[in-house]
Amino acid sequence: MEYKEPHTNGALAAICTNLSKACDKQMRPTEAGLFDKLASYFSQSAGVAGPVSINDLDANIAADTESGYIAVESRAQQVGDRGALRCVTWGKKVTAIHKSVLVRYAKQGDALMEGSNLYVCEACGFIAIAKEVPGLCPICKAPASRFTKI
Amino acid sequence: MHAARNIALCTKDCLCLFVCPTGATDTENGQIDFSRCLDGCRLCVDACPSHALYLVFDRYPVKPQKDAVVASALDNLLESKVKQELIGTALAQGENGGAKLAKAIAHSNRVLAEDCAREARYILPQGSETRKLLTELLGRRGDPGFPVDAVEQLLELLQ
Ligand code: SF4
Ligand code: SF4
């Protein structure tokens, strides 16, 4: 059979880790493990990005902010897709955080993180640079237990 | 429909053991024996003082399709987030001081990418769009290292 799914290997990896988490929440560890197996295959196939610099993120962040999220949001509003609107609400804020962290890093360098830890919210992706884990995610209101220390 | 137990919330009050008419709540691995659970009975769900039990469909009803325009706009966003994840991962391997920050950015972009995937249409493992994708992935049979057996098992387990 010919395959024609519209996703790159990297995207398939994210789709599969998402579905693995969904299976975990339904208490289906066997299925979760199978999706994880697929995800690691796709991650490997996605390979490593070529020579890159931290500035390469800027173009993508600008595109997401100026068109990517707007495209989803305007159509989701028309058709009343509230799940997609929730994804846009959180995602736009997290993307703005990425931008501001990168701007601050360009100015301050490693001093930005000195004496602090990095935490990522597993629910929305919010990045905190702080001594202690946040008590509550400022974007999605997830509790401290939903943060991963990097 | 069957009950499922969130073991992290279970406080071992064991009410579920004594109300269940079939013994499905009493197992060596702490999970409900889905095959013995009576469809929609929910006695244990109502009895549990710790909100550790909930009901899940065995077979999911067909969900309305996602709007095609929303889905493809989310597909584009998903690809962009994955690209940023890969850039972050590549930078995280360097020795420079920003490596840790790059790692956080990669991790955050994976969370964002997963959210796009979910809202694009891959929210339920049992959903028709997930099945469609899995069926298409069968076409990769024979690609070096591709775990086609995992795809086949998933198609069988998730209905
Ligand atoms: S009733 Fe709830 S808390 Fe008690 S053993 Fe059952 S699942 Fe755990
Ligand atoms: S829903 Fe009923 S049959 Fe199923 S595990 Fe709970 S008490 Fe037992």
Give the strand order, joined by hyphens, for the main sheet of chain A: 2-1-3
- Sheet having the most strands of chain A: 3 strands, antiparallel
Largest interface: A-B, 77 and 72 residues
Please estimate the helix content of chain B.
40-55%
Q: Describe the strand arrangement of the main beta sheet of chain B, using strand numbers.
A: 1-2
Quaternary status:
heterodimer
What's the pLDDT, averaged over the residues of chain A? Answer: 91
Class inferred from helices and paired strands of chain A: mainly alpha
Radius of gyration of chain B: 21 Å
Shape of chain B: extended
Strand content of chain A: 5-15%
- So, CATH architecture of the largest domain in chain B? 2-Layer Sandwich
Features:
heterodimer; A: 150 residues; mainly alpha; Rubrerythrin, domain 2; 3 domains; three-stranded antiparallel β-sheet; 4 helices; 57% helix; 8% strand; B: 159 residues; Alpha-Beta Plaits; two-stranded antiparallel ribbon; 6 helices; 48% helix; binds iron/sulfur cluster
General description of the model:
The complex is a heterodimer of chains A (150) and B (159). Chain A has four helices and three strands. Chain A is mostly helical and 150 residues long. In chain A, strands 2-1-3 form a three-stranded antiparallel β-sheet. Chain A is globular, with a radius of gyration of 18 Å. In chain A, 39% of the residues are buried. Chain B has three domains: 1-60, Alpha-Beta Plaits; 68-119, no CATH class; 128-158, no CATH class. In chain B, strands 1-2 form a two-stranded antiparallel sheet. At the A-B interface, helix 1, helix 2, helix 3, helix 4 and strand 1 of A face helix 3, helix 4, helix 5 and helix 6 of B. One iron/sulfur cluster binds at residues 5, 10-16, 47-48, 50, 52-53 of chain B.
